[in-house]
Write a structure and sequence with these properties.
- By secondary structure, the protein is mainly α.
- It has a domain at 40-68.
- 61% of the residues lie in helices and 0% in strands.
- Helix 1 (16-36) runs antiparallel to helix 2.
- The mean pLDDT is 88.
Length: 74
Amino acid sequence: MAKTAKKNVQDFTFGKENMYGLAAGIIGIVIGFILMAQPPVDGFLSRTLAPIVLVISYLVIIPLAIMRGKKKQK
């Protein structure tokens, strides 16, 4: 009879802090799209602030939330 190899079961590395960061990124994206929908089209909110919020959310907050690792316990 063949021996069954035990699999190395690791914890899910996407922890509570990662979830909070991902939630902050999604909230930032929603705020960015809400700002983009505000009239007038040539206004400060829809033309300048909304793209800045969206870029920060997509390119900074969400990748940091994904790449942030767990702190090792002693």
